[in-house]
Amino acid sequence: MGNSVFDSILARYLPTTKVEEQNVIHEVMQQTALAGLYHGGFFNHAAFYGGTCLRIFYGLERFSEDMDFSLLQPNENFHLENYFDAITAEFHSLGWEITITRKEKKTQTNVESAFLKDNTEIYNLAFTTEKSIKIKIEVNTQPPLGFSTEHKLLMLPFSFMVRCYTLPDLYAGKMHALLFRAWKSRVKGRDWYDFEWYVRNSTKLNFKHLQQRTEQINAIKAEDFTLEIFKNLLKDKILKTDINLVKNDIRPFIKNASEMDIWSADYFLQLVDKINYSSK
């Protein structure tokens, strides 16, 4: 896989374990995919959001796996296939061969369908030289609106701009995921890690956008999803979650596991009361 661009990016991370090296390679691939999308004009129509966006552009100190995008306006006729050539060309320029396939969603429960959204296009991007590396790309073609975006600079594999959700709207998406992600007995510790990150960094939560997401996806009217109900649902979620499972899920994606020593139900309950809210 060696080439000057990859080596330049790898040198920024200095991985010390095989897991860290795999995480780094994964991130290099994500950045290359973003470069291809940029060349294809994708960000004229869509914005980057989710944990990988938070990691690459806003300094979140954990690695992330999937790439989530939202159209700026609903468009049921949108197809990511139109950007496949631009993505594959970007990887080809770095000496990598990739395959992109559309993932057929299996039948889900109503809640899972509501969260995953039947109008979300899902793709898998796999690397023929790295069989263990695969990135899931999701594009929401019928997004809840009321979000803001900004252009963020990425300088490798070259300098280019990516349209991203602003932090308050990323925060809203994360809190919706934490509350409503339908994984039954499984937990996604990355949601909890990100929640802590937002609180620690005094990020303002765009509660109005959270209400819009909840209304569109979970059929709870915005006026019924009050701040008090949100806090109560979040605290109830915390009390019903096994924090040890949360820790186990996030551990492979962070360098310093000791930062989770303080994690407990009581700790997260106190974080709820420290959430800042935007006024818009």
Kindly describe this structure.
It is a single chain. This protein has helices at residues 4-11, 18-39, 51-58, 84-93, 110-116, 167-180, 189-200, 207-218, 227-239, 243-250, 265-272; strands at residues 46-49, 67-71, 98-102, 120-127, 130-140, 149-154, 160-165, 204-205, 276-277. It is α/β, with parallel strands linked by helices and 280 residues long. The strands form three sheets. Strands 1-2-5-4-3 form a five-stranded mixed β-sheet. A hairpin with a 2-residue loop joins strand 4 (120-127) and strand 5. The longest helix is centred in the N-terminal third of the chain and has 22 residues, at 18-39.
Question: Helix and strand layout, with pairings?
Answer:
Elements: H1 4-11, H2 18-39, E1 46-49, H3 51-58, E2 67-71, H4 84-93, E3 98-102, H5 110-116, E4 120-127, E5 130-140, E6 149-154, E7 160-165, H6 167-180, H7 189-200, E8 204-205, H8 207-218, H9 227-239, H10 243-250, H11 265-272, E9 276-277
Parallel strand pairs: 2-5, 8-9
Antiparallel strand pairs: 1-2, 3-4, 4-5, 6-7
Helix pairs in contact: 2-4, 6-7, 6-8, 7-10, 9-11
